[in-house]
Amino acid sequence: MKKYAWRLSICLAVAGVLGASALPAQAQMSVHVRIGPPPAPRHERIPPLPPGYVWAPGYWQLQGGRYVWRPGHRMRGRPGYHWRQPRWVHGPRGWEMRQGGWDRGGNRIHPCPRGQTRHGKCR
Predict the structure, then answer these.
(1) Which has more confidence, 23 or 36?
(2) CA–CA separation, 94 vs 73, rounded Å?
(3) Of 30-39, 61-70, 97-106, the least confident
(4) Mean pLDDT, range 28-43, rounded to an integer
(5) Is residue 8 pLDDT above 60, yes or no?
(6) 82 with 105: CB under 8 angstroms?
(7) Cα–Cα distance between 31 and 34 in angstroms, integer?
(8) Is 101 helix (H, G, I), strand (E, B) or coil?
(9) Do 122 and 116 meet the contact criterion of CB atoms below 8 Å apart?
(10) Which of the residue ranges 31-35, 61-65, 68-72, 103-107 would you say has the lowest mean pLDDT?
(11) Rounded distance between C-alpha atoms, residue 67 and residue 45, angstroms
(12) Which residue blocks in the chain are alpha helix, DSSP H?
């Protein structure tokens, strides 16, 4: 009888330790830091681009809890695609970054951001 009581107490102790260690794992924790909106985009001087290149405008990137400006750059265009620039959108959880990328559709290789040719900023 003492043998079974000893085994039972060991099993209960092990179950208690395992159960206690599993409790914190069941708790859910989420941390969401709300930050203010990104600053207004900077005005960049767009250099003359070689044929077949497009301009990817600069944007603000969140890094280490603050916004850091990533300057624009030229890149080789892709026929049949157009460049979608990164942008910030205010959503239900605060400001969210939508990444840029190539989208299929038309042969819209623009060496200049939309509207800049009217202002004489691009050739």
Answers:
(1) 36
(2) 28
(3) 30-39
(4) 70
(5) no
(6) yes
(7) 10
(8) strand
(9) yes
(10) 31-35
(11) 21
(12) 2-26
- In 1-123, which ranges are E strands? 53-56, 59-63, 66-70, 73-76, 81-84, 87-91, 94-98, 101-104
The angle subtended at Cα 38 by Cα 56 and Cα 90, nearest 5°, is 95
What span, in angstroms and rounded, lies between the C-alpha atoms of 58 and 68?
Answer: 11
- pTM for this predicted structure: 0.56
Q: Is the dihedral of CA 84, 86, 46, 120 positive or negative?
A: positive
**Residues 54, 75: contact at Cβ < 8 Å?**
yes
Residue 102's DSSP bridge partners are: 83
Q: Can you tell me the distance from the alpha carbon of 38 to that of 35, in angstroms, rounded to the nearest whole number?
A: 9
Domain ranges in the chain are 48-123
How far, CA to CA in Å, does 32 sit from each of 77, 98, 109, 120?
Answer: 38, 18, 39, 43
Torsion 57-62-63-69 (CA) sign? positive
